[in-house]
Amino acid sequence: MSIVAVRNLHARLGGRAVLHGVSFAAEPGTLTAIAGPNGAGKSTLLRGLAGLLPGGRAEPKRVAWLPQDARCAWGLTIAQVAALGRIPHGDADEAAIDRALAACGIAHLRDARVDRVSGGQARRAMLARAFATDPAALLLDEPVADLDPAACFEIMDLLRRTAHAGRAVVVVLHALDLALRYADRMVVMQDGRIVADAPPEAALPAAAAAFGLRLGPDPAPLLLPG
Predict the structure, then answer these.
(1) Whole-angstrom distance, CA of residue 183 vs CA of residue 205
(2) What is the pLDDT of residues 83-93, one digit of tens each?
(3) What is the mean predicted confidence (pLDDT) over 159-177?
(4) What is the full DSSP assignment across 65-123?
(5) Are 185 and 32 in contact (CB under 8 A)?
(6) pTM given for the model
(7) What residue ranges define each of the domains in the chain, with the CATH number in brackets?
């Protein structure tokens, strides 16, 4: 049974059509990577799944959404940022906050101000906010964009474990190597439509084509300039 889904979703931004009848359901126990070039509609689809578009609906206690440009402009501590994820529950569950900080590798920074840490650490704080909600579905737009390679692997490991523990995790990624390594399912978007929805290796040719790339020879299907 899907936790979040859209059916025949159309969307316009600034008078321009960005989604054309897209249908998608996120399954529990699955890490889904949404890939595609800039302007393909990936972030808009995620907003639809989060119930943030007309006609959409999502229960805040069950769904956590992390936008691509998520940041905190206030001088809050990292623990206070994570605690924002408890707002839908109407509490400040310290155990949930502690678990979120530990999972995101920033428990040692709980008292640091979020505006005085590195961009990557601030990004982890926003991710901890999503985890503190303790949701059934995590919708994350480029969650590793500001992280170094080792941190990317660490966070993607966490997301895969989270999905395989029974939650639905949907991640927008531009890094196709991460999608191949970690995702159970890859959804490829182009021009506001889903052009492939399959296990990553099966979806890779469509992803390469969407980015204007070509696949190298076996045994390593490297992405090469088109």
Answers:
(1) 16
(2) 999 999 999 99
(3) 96
(4) EE-TT----S--BHHHHHHGGGGGGTS--HHHHHHHHHHTT-GGGTTSBGGGS-HHHHH
(5) yes
(6) 0.93
(7) 1-62+135-226 (3.40.50.300), 70-134 (no CATH)
